[in-house]
Design goal:
Layout: H1 3-16, H2 23-28, H3 46-59, E1 65-70, E2 73-78, H4 83-86, H5 99-111, H6 116-123, H7 129-137, E3 141-146, E4 154-158, H8 160-166, H9 186-202
Antiparallel strand pairs: 1-2, 3-4
Helix pairs in contact: 1-3, 5-9
Length: 244
């Protein structure tokens, strides 16, 4: 297949795809096989696909749509400056997230993997089960393992869906915490909450998802919290890049 034709095929597939396409998925576009499953001709390699993607990125650089690399693959999306115009034809507002939800998500994103006990130690209040369930239902967090202590509590981490919805390719692109301490201070959490809300506001809310209730569940303060068993001081925020 000629380069120009391969580029046109790739562009069409990306424009029509409902989800980001991985490089492996793009390679299948050019895998011609016979009835016995044998490859016909010379397949388009990954290096060529990457080159075509860069060419497409350049071709679309002065348009209202751009091609971007996310955690789960590549996709076309509208540029941020186009949002004010697109909102006029899609007036639905994305859901607003409570402070408790954003704080919980922030701690998981920056300190993963963490247990509920770790989150409660940092926030000083009990974690509401509905908050964790809502984040799991949205596909933003998942159980990534269990801590090998009594009770084997679940370890929580963020997902590629979380990064995709923020328009990021890796956790390393999250805004840096202001504090250099082991635990995020209040100002750092507030800055992260604002950044997460701003990014979520830029994405369209799923059509079949109802907005979160404006009244948050009552949270119970934890007095004299005991340190969680072996709290992970995980600061390697690149963990999620290829771990799914």
């Amino acid at each position: 297949m000629k380069t120009d034709e391969a580029k046109r095929v790739l562009e069409t597939a990306l424009l029509c795809a409902r989800e980001p396409m991985s490089l492996h998925g793009m390679k299948k576009l050019f895998a011609d096989v016979d009835a016995n499953g044998r490859v016909l001709g010379t397949p388009v390699g990954l290096d060529t696909i990457k080159l075509l993607l860069e060419e497409l990125r350049h071709d679309w650089q002065d348009r209202g749509i751009e091609i971007v690399s996310l955690a789960s693959g590549w996709r076309f999306q509208s540029r941020p400056e186009m949002k004010q115009y697109l909102d006029r034809i899609t007036p639905e507002k994305p859901p607003k997230y409570s402070r408790a939800t954003l704080e919980t998500l922030a701690i998981i994103a920056y300190r993963q993997p963490v247990t509920r006990g770790d989150i409660e130690e940092i926030r000083g209040v009990a974690v509401n089960s509905q908050t964790i369930k809502m984040l799991e239902d949205r596909g933003w967090i998942d159980v990534v393992g269990h801590r090998e202590v009594v009770g084997r509590p679940a370890l929580l981490g963020t997902t590629k869906q979380f990064l995709d919805d923020l328009g990021l390719a890796s956790l390393g692109q999250l805004p840096p915490l202001e504090s250099s301490a082991d635990e995020p201070d209040r100002r750092s959490l507030e800055a992260l909450e604002a950044a997460l809300q701003q990014n979520f506001d830029k994405t369209d809310a799923p059509a079949d998802v109802e907005e979160e209730q404006t009244t948050s569940p009552v949270e119970v303060p934890i007095h004299d919290p005991q340190p969680a068993y072996g709290v992970d001081r995980v600061n390697n925020i690149e963990t999620n890049d290829e771990s799914y």
